[in-house]
Design goal:
The protein is mainly beta. It is built from one helix and five strands; from the N terminus they run E-E-E-E-H-E. The chain has a five-stranded antiparallel sheet, with helices on one face.
């Protein structure tokens, strides 16, 4: 199964969360947070999707989740407590 993790092949580690319960395995873990590189060569146009996709990986069961871009941006700015269990969403399957 493949997942769409953004419009870039380049992925960067953004650090780890505080301890959160994994929705899949129910273990208390620090999720690894990753994102694609946001590339904007031209100003945002409605036809071009230039969003940064943040995704979190459970170190226990390897489940993959995502969070909204604004939550991920806050996390990237150093606010580790901004990601909570209620922010975790399933990644959509790539089609």
């Amino acid at each position: 199964m493949e997942y769409k993790i953004g419009n870039s092949r380049r992925v960067k580690s953004r650090g780890n969360t505080y301890l959160l319960n994994c929705p899949h395995c129910s273990k208390l873990v620090e999720f690894g947070v990753f994102s694609n590189y946001k590339r904007e060569l031209v100003p945002r146009l409605p036809l071009i999707d230039c969003n940064t996709v943040y995704f979190l990986v459970c170190p226990n069961c390897a489940s993959v989740f995502t969070v909204d871009e604004n939550v991920g941006d806050d996390f990237k700015s150093g606010n580790r407590e901004d990601i909570s269990e209620k922010d975790l969403k399933e990644l959509k399957e790539f089609k």
